[in-house]
């Protein structure tokens, strides 16, 4: 049951994030939307892990490992994007 | 057998070299990159020989853990061809880039030189991983690594316009990869594995998998810059320094294209999707026509070459409906045609961007209208541009001709003659924009400024790449049998 709720919340986050990434024009808002979208995908992975539980585990460990790797990659992407936005702002100040 | 280590080495060694290059500083990183280039080339040639002679893909289970528990690398014919292409082009670019990003003896190391060499190594590792990985999540990591290495190359000079182009590229790429990851979650939830070979046996066309494939394809198209999602490509590829544009246009977009192939003809090998493939090729056809028309209208040379990339990417997607709707020899022709198009475009476009870069640095601008006199001042550069253009047009006997001929005859063989018209029309339009540049370059005009001292090496590299793209067309068709090895959609 909790798996279903997580899955639905994940789907909602994916929808909000996708909307933000496609509609918003401000770079910072789009980066935040990307993080919402990523969070939603990780929740879906979590729901998948719960559904695949077996052999005495509370969840399938493979999607959990993927979530961890995915969070690291998404964090790296966010820092890269924020650094780029900062450089752009600095370039605008100089111009 | 130690041969199965080769794909793993082709991925690991550039990663190690990249990590080692950072503390070495700009001069050390440059030396390390140039020293690694022959090693990488030898690895790629080794993989190609093992695959070609053995007739089966190289497969390695990392740490001897078999999928679905472990992760496997699998270098098939397509991977071998792309590895060799990447090794040749990156090696050539490394030599070419010494003039821009090299640090002369006694000179102070510069920031963008320090950034360029490790990024080039990282990009090489990412390309290699993207073609040999056999696991959807490993492919996601490869895709992200590719973006993270390619994005800073776009804005190496740090100007506002290139920073903006890089940010736009990053946004498209991030959206693309997170959509891809969503598809990975759905596929894992429905099939319980991410290994492509296992998925090819297990997957049936049920709804979650179809949604996953649709979402992942959309994400990958954003990264490959197929037409409605191409908006980021021209400013990013035209704004980057010549050496960087050449890698971006030649190789980076091909990485995500190989992933689309792995999805459609690996994961979905047993589930043909002819209707969706028609849509994909329709987008490709629109890219060919609109991209070429946009290239015709450009005032700046590098933007023209970038729009030409948008158009040439369209050709890659014409193979999908031909493969989905046919079998046997016709499908084999379409597959070979698509892969040869990817390889020959990589060489031709790298040569073209380098030639455009040489002209831009000699003239101090890249306005096509003011290029008159180029033919007298730099005949070799203009010849390079022309040879690369011939291959893009598909004039025999170039590699581009072989690719387009194979696609054309596959389109006729599959009874889908409308794609043949697109291929022919695209060739004419390509001829139009290449002619525009050549006609202006051959016109008598003000002599260009005095030649730069190292120009012949740079000209030589660009010309060599253009010649490779032409010579590909001289290869006997049997040599292209390599790319058929390990196709999952024809596996028994």
Task: Describe this protein's structure.
The complex is a heterodimer of chains A (95) and B (492). In chain A, helix 2 packs antiparallel against helix 3. Chain A has a single domain (2-94), classed as Helix Hairpins, CATH 1.10.287. With 95 residues, chain A is mainly α. In chain A, 85% of the residues lie in helices and 0% in strands. By secondary structure, chain B is mostly helical. Chain B has a domain at 273-492. Chain B has helices at 6-54, 77-96, 98-101, 111-132, 136-154, 160-191, 196-202, 207-224, 233-239, 242-267, 274-296, 301-316, 319-325, 328-363, 374-377, 379-393, 399-413, 417-442, 455-471, and strands spanning 58-61, 72-75. Chain B is globular, with a radius of gyration of 21 Å. The two termini of chain B are 25 Å apart. The model of chain B has no long low-confidence stretch (mean pLDDT 88). Chain A binds chain B through residues 14, 17, 21-22, 27, 30, 34, 37-38, 41, 44-45, 47-48, 51-52, 62-63, 66, 69-70, 73-74, 76-77, 80-81, 84-85, 87-88, 91-92, 95, and chain B through 137, 140-141, 144, 147-148, 151, 155, 158-160, 163-164, 166-167, 170-171, 174-175, 177-178, 181-182, 184-186, 188-189, 192, 194.
Question: What is this entry, summarized?
Answer:
The complex is a heterodimer of chains A (95) and B (492). Chain A is mainly α.
Q: Mean pLDDT of chain A, rounded to whole units?
A: 88
Span from first to last CA of chain B? 25 Å
H/E element sequence of chain A: HHH
Percentage of helical residues of chain B?
Answer: over 70%
| Number of structural domains of chain A | 1
Q: What is the β-strand count of chain B? A: 2
**H/E topology pattern of chain B:** HEEHHHHHHHHHHHHHHHHHH
Largest sheet of chain B: 2 strands, antiparallel
Which percent range describes the beta-strand content of chain A?
under 5%
CATH architecture of chain A: Orthogonal Bundle
State the low-pLDDT regions of chain A, or none: none
Q: What is the 3D form of chain A?
A: elongated
């Amino acid at each position: 049951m909790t798996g279903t709720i997580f899955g639905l919340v994940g789907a909602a986050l994916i929808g909000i994030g996708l909307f933000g990434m496609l509609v918003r024009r401000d770079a910072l808002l789009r980066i935040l939307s990307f993080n919402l979208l990523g969070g939603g995908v990780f929740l879906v992975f979590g729901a998948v892990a719960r559904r695949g539980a077996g052999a005495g585990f509370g969840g399938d460990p493979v999607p959990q490992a993927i979530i961890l790797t995915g969070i690291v990659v998404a964090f790296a992407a966010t820092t890269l994007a924020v650094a780029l936005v900062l450089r752009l702002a600095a370039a605008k100040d100089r111009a | 057998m130690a041969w199965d280590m080769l794909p793993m080495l082709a991925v690991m060694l550039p990663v190690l070299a990249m990590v080692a290059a950072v503390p070495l500083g700009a001069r050390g990183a440059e030396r390390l990159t140039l020293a690694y280039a022959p090693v990488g080339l030898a690895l790629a040639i080794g993989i190609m020989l093992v695959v070609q002679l053995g007739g089966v893909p190289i497969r390695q289970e990392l740490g001897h853990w078999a999928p679905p528990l472990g992760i496997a690398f699998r270098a098939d014919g397509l991977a071998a061809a792309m590895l060799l292409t990447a090794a040749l082009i990156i090696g050539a670019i490394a030599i070419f880039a010494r003039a821009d990003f090299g640090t002369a003896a006694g000179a102070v190391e510069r920031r963008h030189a320090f950034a360029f060499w490790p990024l080039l190594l990282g990009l090489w590792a990412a390309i290699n991983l993207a073609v040999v990985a056999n696991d959807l999540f490993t492919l996601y990591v490869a895709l992200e690594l590719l973006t993270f290495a390619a994005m800073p190359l776009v804005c190496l000079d740090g100007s506002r316009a290139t920073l903006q182009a890089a940010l736009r590229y990053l946004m498209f790429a991030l959206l693309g990869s997170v959509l891809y990851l969503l598809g990975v979650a759905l596929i894992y939830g429905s099939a319980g594995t991410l290994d492509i070979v296992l998925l090819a046996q297990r997957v049936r066309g049920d709804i979650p998998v179809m949604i996953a494939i649709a979402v992942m394809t959309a994400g990958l198209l954003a990264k490959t810059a197929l037409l409605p999602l191409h908006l980021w490509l021209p400013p990013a590829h035209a704004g980057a320094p010549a050496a960087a544009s050449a890698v971006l246009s030649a190789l980076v977009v091909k990485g995500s294209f190989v992933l689309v192939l792995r999805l459609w003809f690996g994961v979905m090998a047993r589930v043909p999707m002819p209707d969706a493939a028609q849509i994909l090729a329709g987008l490709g056809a629109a890219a060919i026509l609109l991209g070429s028309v946009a290239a015709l209208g450009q005032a700046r040379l590098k933007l023209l070459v970038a729009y030409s990339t948008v158009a040439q990417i369209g050709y890659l997607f014409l193979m999908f409906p031909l493969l989905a709707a046919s079998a046997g020899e016709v499908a084999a022709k379409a597959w070979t045609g698509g892969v040869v198009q990817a390889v020959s475009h990589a060489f031709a476009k790298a040569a073209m961007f380098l030639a455009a870069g040489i002209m831009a640095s000699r003239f101090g601008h890249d306005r096509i209208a003011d290029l008159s006199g180029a033919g007298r001042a730099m005949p070799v550069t203009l010849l390079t541009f022309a040879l690369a253009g011939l291959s893009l047009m598909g004039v025999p006997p170039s590699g581009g001709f072989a690719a387009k001929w194979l696609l054309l005859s596959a389109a006729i063989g599959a009874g889908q003659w409308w794609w043949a018209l697109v291929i022919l029309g695209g060739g004419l339009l390509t001829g139009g924009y290449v002619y525009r540049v050549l006609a202006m370059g051959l016109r008598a005009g003000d002599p260009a400024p005095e030649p730069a001292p190292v120009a012949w090496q740079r000209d030589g590299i660009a010309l060599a790449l253009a010649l490779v793209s032409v010579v590909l067309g001289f290869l006997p068709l049997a040599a292209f049998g390599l790319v058929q090895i390990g196709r999952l959609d024809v596996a028994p």
